[in-house]
Amino acid sequence: MTRITHPIWFWQRIVSPHMAGLAVEMGKRGHNVTYVAEREMSEERRRQGWTVPDLSNVALHLAPSVNEMRQVAQNAPEGAIHLGQGIRGNGLVSIAQSVLRQRAARQWVMMETVDDSGWRGLMRRLEYRRLFYRWRSHIEGVLAIGSVTPRWVVERGVPWERVFPFVYFLLDDAMVPPRKEITDAPFRFLFVGQIIERKRLNLLVDALSMLPREDFELIVIGDGPSSQYLRLWADHALNGRVKWDGQIPMAEVRERMSAADCLVLPSRHDGWGAVVSEALMAGTQAVCSDRCGAAEAVRASGAGGVFRSGDTGELSRILQRLMAEGRPNPDRRRHLASWAKSLAVSAGAHYLESIFQHSEGDAEVPTPPWRAVGRNNFGSETNLSSSCSIERVRSV
């Protein structure tokens, strides 16, 4: 198997902690890596507690204007592999992609799950079909992030052999520390995210209010325009069993995750939902809606559950089942965290190398690391029949 020696360029709108780690890991593996962004961080993300990640061993270029972005793209070396953020609504990254297309450069698209609900969804489906047709001879492949994204991209006209399931691979340092089992504490549910309509915290409160037991608590990390109303309503609906932690730094969020029994992401839609990956890597089981891209990881983990978006009853039944199973003990948490190494940047870098090697005809189609064949650490078969597995995408 020939090692990939081409320079690798990441094109993103910000220096995202969900992508920078993969770039750094590729650099550690000996690749010449460059990361290009419009700016280090957006104000919105700063308010959410995001910090600019370290990009040691990666060349960073900030290009906050059209001319600067165009110049960086024009100066990129011949033969480089370019990984662009999306193909629509991607800010100045689209400028770079256009320049690289004129140069006949090697381009890949990294894209999340698209919200295609309602009439706007119909328009998006048509627009993506048009865009993929326009770019059909300029894109080597699509790294499709999310449980339904690979099939969705194929349905928009991209050949299946150029579509590869992908995730946001995170840093490897999220292993849960050993802790003593606390048998007399309430079952601890955790919500992490913006308190906005799309995240559907209200749905989670409704589902919890339907539980026949009251020996649980809900911890909410985050803030947003709906906070004041939801605080009053949730405290009443759950009889004061909600703890509001507000906005806290990302490092502290991970500590709270390792102390929770279950993270819940009830979003109406999420392109991925990195908090799910973070929870699993901390040994905490997760529940999310089927409209979250991270449903792919939840199903593969064999822990937690996935419910139909907007279905309060189904969510409540999953939460009731998890409470009946009891608080996860330290061994179970360590097993889950060990499996979740498949979502870490070390696994992601190896997978990305394998994808490039396959695209150059030097390797078989790589199996996504989170879908490794065999049995997971909880004694159930690893989910290899996800609706978007590479095998089923082939059948489209």
Secondary structure layout plus pairing:
Blueprint: E1 8-12, H1 17-28, E2 33-37, H2 43-47, E3 59-62, H3 66-75, E4 81-85, H4 93-102, E5 106-111, H5 118-134, E6 139-145, H6 149-155, E7 163-166, E8 187-192, H7 201-209, E9 216-221, H8 227-237, E10 242-246, H9 250-259, E11 262-265, H10 274-281, E12 285-289, H11 295-301, E13 305-307, H12 312-325, H13 330-339, H14 345-359, H15 390-394
Parallel strand pairs: 1-2, 1-4, 2-3, 4-5, 5-6, 6-7, 8-9, 8-11, 9-10, 11-12, 12-13
Helix pairs in contact: 1-14, 3-4, 7-12
Give an account of the 3D structure.
There is one protein chain. With 396 residues, the protein is α/β, with parallel strands linked by helices. 38% of the residues lie in helices and 16% in strands. The protein contains 15 helices and 13 strands. The chain has helices at residues 17-28, 43-47, 66-75, 93-102, 118-134, 149-155, 201-209, 227-237, 250-259, 274-281, 295-301, 312-325, 330-339, 345-359, 390-394, and strands spanning 8-12, 33-37, 59-62, 81-85, 106-111, 139-145, 163-166, 187-192, 216-221, 242-246, 262-265, 285-289, 305-307. The strands form two sheets. A seven-stranded parallel sheet has the order 3-2-1-4-5-6-7, sandwiched between helices. Helix 5 links the parallel strand 5 (106-111) and strand 6 (139-145). Helix 3 packs parallel to helix 4. The two termini are 29 Å apart.
